[in-house]
Amino acid sequence: MTRFGTPLLALALALAAGPASAVLDDGAMAPTDQAANRLYWQAQSALRDADWTTALQRFEQLEQQLREREPRSADAALYWRAHTLVQLRRTTEARALVERLHREFPASRWGKDADALVAPGKPAAAAAGAATVSEQDDLADAAVEALLTAPPDRAIPLLGKVLKSQRPLRTKQRALFVLSQLGDARALDAVIEVTRSTADPALRAEAIRILGIGGDPRGAERLRELYAGSTDAAEKRQVIDAWLIADRKDLMLAAARSESDPVVREHAAQMLGAMGATAELGQLFDATTDPAARSAIVRALGIAGDGTRVAAIAGDTKQPEAVRAAALEAVGLSGHGAELLAGLYAKADTAALRDATLRAMLIADDSAGLKRLYGEAKTPDEKKAVLRVLGMVDSDATLDLIERALGD
Length: 408
Prior knowledge:
- The chain is mostly helical.
- Among the domains are: 111 residues, Tetratricopeptide repeat domain (Serine Threonine Protein Phosphatase 5, Tetratricopeptide repeat); 77 residues.
- Helix content is 73%, strand content 0%.
């Protein structure tokens, strides 16, 4: 029997090795700016590959962009920079970043997690020659990893004991990872059992991710059962994320169709967008008339890169204004904004739609289109609106226009 999940070994190892607060959470920070969004996922990918230097560079670039375009989200970039510095053992720098996070964002949701990154270790045991708690944990981690090459008959019972013990979450996560690599049906049973019996939500979430990475039919069936029987929106999102890893468009589409919780339903639609499932999203759009649901679906189509479809929706005067506005912003997300948005701006027949088009051009980083719109603007108010957005995209071009206006 082959090991399940071997092609995604690096991903699983990074998830298993990291602390609970550092596990990738797609909902934790999702910049609306397209370039920032791209940097965020590039940095997270580098973290998964344990490429700490690249991750740090990307998070530094991300912080710069967020401070310019989404300053209220910059605390997340500070946290992830500190996390990466800890991985590089540059704890003094990490501690300085955490202090800056508290100073600049005193109410940040990342505050407690950031403190945990740089918390001082427990003191050594008083007895001579006794190992510290951290040394004991490190030894346990090494022992768990050594079971990767042990016979399954010996390894699986030992790993099961680890999962039921009082060991730290990190050690238990590694135990789940090792189980995923043993290539034995009993190992998969042990991972599935964690999703049934553990009271630790973080460990349960890790088991759900492991099942998604594995792609085993029994694991997929367990995920389907979990989703169907759960009333916890957070857990449903975890299962949806596992389906993304497992490339299960069919289950994702079913969730997006039938889920009663609008937040979970929107998350399923977004993940279909991340999978490039444009046909499935088109089916969803046609199957509902709810404006909020359609707005979520067109944003997902933008994530999937279907600029032509969302541009058509944006120009459809039969659609509610909120749906058309969402579609305009989705054009910006699609990667085809520069080609389509200037023409859509001319067709925008309300102030809200014109504003949505400008936001889309900001997402698309379309300074050339904004400069053209500024030159074509018919009223002072329209010129001011375009100029404000252009200033966030290209400050030099904005200063040139201002200088020209003041020189007239």
